[in-house]
């Protein structure tokens, strides 16, 4: 949602690809005839600068498919000069700390970076004994092993549904070197954010 | 596959004559905890990654961090550490196996062992304590297994140490007690790796402890001291438990602090 509001824009980005998953977690009903835009995992490319790619993955990638996802996706990308940024969220209950998680002021960001990533990170690094799993972990592992500079920003939140507070927790990233030039106009972002949230809200209402 | 940390000639895969120490992902994660103690105490250096599609992906910062400077290195689910002075190379596995991937992993691992010319493999594992028979309930909960190739090489060392070999159980209990098979419940890839090593003529030892899920730190200490009786990785003194260094990642094994509002 953060990327949709602050970065993506149909004028500047075009869809260049999709990843289709054979996966019961995927909500696509007709798997034989899936249009690229029906996919829950889309790749966009910045029209003005084709070296910038954005991936929106809104479905769960099961553990036995994560490796194949990586091989397929990174197989199509040139590794020289590649830099990867991953954004992800996670329940704050999973965060291990000396104090109780009730006293923490969530949402908050934590980062993990590969050895080759030399830039400044926008938030503290993820302390031990915390770990990251699933697709973000798979991507970061791949980048660490193959010496690609990469950074993962994990947002710990106590809200399950989409909400503005969690999305705005990612705001420090807008001033980072990678995303600075990609940010849209602020007023547009607020409009899109509102639209995204209202669409989700109607489904949450149990009253007519 | 093994991917060295340093590219170029320096970081090759040549562990000729080294002993490979590794855990089985088994009950209580005892093998993995014991390996953590070995790596942390001997301050082993990371030399590479074991990049595989057989394990669930995970990442985190350096689990053996001793200061702020070295706490920022990223670690993944399977990494290789070495200590050339003791001719020891260690593989640490940090996540479970993906379904149907036991056999491919064993094959990849054993072909890597053969290609980098490791002298022997030592597997640290565990088995469900509740599956013991009456005789096994008495005496030591530690057991060993040796492939024929290693039995020839060590020539009765285990008898000198007074170690107990893992007993075989009846293949058809109650029906036919003569046919005996190896059975390691809760041992993960232990049995598969052992039988594959036997058939390939690889020198492998399995050191395991009977235990249950729970606080497995004492089990890890027991297993690592058992290993030390043979390999002498650290000097054995009366109270060896205090000489193993607990890594910083073992903090908060049983969850966060309690909310004060609870009381």
TrEMBL record, chain A:
It comes from the Eukaryota. One of its GO terms (cellular component) is endoplasmic reticulum. The keyword Signal applies. One of its GO terms (molecular function) is proteasome binding. The keyword Manganese does not apply. Transmembrane segments: none annotated. Residues 1-18 form the signal peptide. One of its GO terms (biological process) is proteasome core complex assembly. It holds the Pfam family PAC1. InterPro entries: Proteasome_assmbl_chp_1. Keywords: Chaperone, Signal. PANTHER family: PROTEASOME ASSEMBLY CHAPERONE 1. Belongs to the PSMG1 family. This is Proteasome assembly chaperone 1. It comes from Anseranas semipalmata (Magpie goose). The lineage of its organism: Eukaryota, Metazoa, Chordata, Craniata, Vertebrata.
From TrEMBL, chain B:
InterPro entries: Proteasome_assmbl_chaperone_2, Proteasome_assmbl_chp_2_euk, PSMG2_sf. It comes from the Eukaryota. Its main location: nucleus. GO terms for cellular component: cytosol; nucleus. Gene3D superfamilies: PAC-like subunit (3.40.50.10900). One of its GO terms (biological process) is proteasome assembly. It is found in: Nucleus. Belongs to the PSMG2 family. Forms a heterodimer with PSMG1. The PSMG1-PSMG2 heterodimer interacts directly with the PSMA5 and PSMA7 proteasome alpha subunits. Chaperone protein which promotes assembly of the 20S proteasome as part of a heterodimer with PSMG1. The PSMG1-PSMG2 heterodimer binds to the PSMA5 and PSMA7 proteasome subunits, promotes assembly of the proteasome alpha subunits into the heteroheptameric alpha ring and prevents alpha ring dimerization. This is Proteasome assembly chaperone 2. It comes from Anseranas semipalmata (Magpie goose).
């Amino acid at each position: 949602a953060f990327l949709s509001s602050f970065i993506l824009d149909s004028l500047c980005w075009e869809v260049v690809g999709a990843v289709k998953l054979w996966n019961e977690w995927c909500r696509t009903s007709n798997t034989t005839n899936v249009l690229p835009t029906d996919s829950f995992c889309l790749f966009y490319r910045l029209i003005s600068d084709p070296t910038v790619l954005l991936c929106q993955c809104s479905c769960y990638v099961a553990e036995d498919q994560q490796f194949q996802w990586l091989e397929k996706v990174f197989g199509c990308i040139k590794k020289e000069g590649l830099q990867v940024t991953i954004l992800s969220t996670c329940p704050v209950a999973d965060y291990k700390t000396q104090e109780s998680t009730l006293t923490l002021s969530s949402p908050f960001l934590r980062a993990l970076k590969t050895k080759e990533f030399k830039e400044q990170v926008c938030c503290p690094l993820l302390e031990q004994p915390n770990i990251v799993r699933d697709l973000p972990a798979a991507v970061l592992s791949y980048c660490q092993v193959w010496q690609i500079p990469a950074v993962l920003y994990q947002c710990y939140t106590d809200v399950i549904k989409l909400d503005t507070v969690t999305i705005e927790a990612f705001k420090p990233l807008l001033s980072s070197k990678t995303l600075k030039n990609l940010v849209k106009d602020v007023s547009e972002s607020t409009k899109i954010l509102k639209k995204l949230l209202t669409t989700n809200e109607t489904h949450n209402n149990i009253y007519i | 596959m093994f991917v060295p940390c340093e590219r170029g000639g320096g970081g090759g895969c040549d562990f000729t004559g080294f002993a490979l120490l590794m855990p089985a992902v088994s009950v209580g994660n005892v093998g993995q905890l014991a390996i953590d103690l070995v790596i942390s105490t001997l301050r082993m250096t990371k030399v590479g990654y074991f990049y595989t599609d057989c394990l669930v992906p995970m990442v985190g910062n350096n689990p053996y961090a001793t200061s702020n400077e070295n706490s920022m290195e990223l670690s993944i689910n399977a990494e290789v550490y070495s200590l050339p002075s003791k001719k020891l190379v260690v593989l640490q596995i940090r996540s479970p196996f993906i379904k149907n991937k036991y056999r491919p992993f064993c094959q990849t691992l054993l072909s890597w062992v053969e290609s980098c010319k490791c002298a022997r493999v030592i597997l640290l594992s565990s088995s469900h304590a509740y599956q013991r028979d009456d005789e096994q309930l008495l005496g030591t909960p530690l057991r060993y297994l040796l492939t024929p190739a290693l039995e020839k090489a060590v020539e009765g060392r285990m008898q000198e140490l007074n170690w107990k070999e893992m007993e075989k159980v009846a293949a058809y209990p109650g029906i036919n007690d003569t046919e005996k098979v190896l059975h390691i419940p809760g041992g993960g890839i232990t049995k598969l790796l052992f039988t594959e090593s036997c058939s390939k003529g690889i020198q492998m030892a399995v050191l395991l402890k009977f235990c249950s899920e729970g606080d497995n730190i004492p089990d890890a200490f027991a297993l690592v001291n058992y290993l030390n009786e043979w390999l002498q990785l650290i000097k054995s003194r009366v109270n060896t438990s205090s000489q193993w260094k607990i890594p910083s990642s073992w903090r908060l094994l049983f969850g966060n602090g309690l909310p004060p509002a609870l009381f």
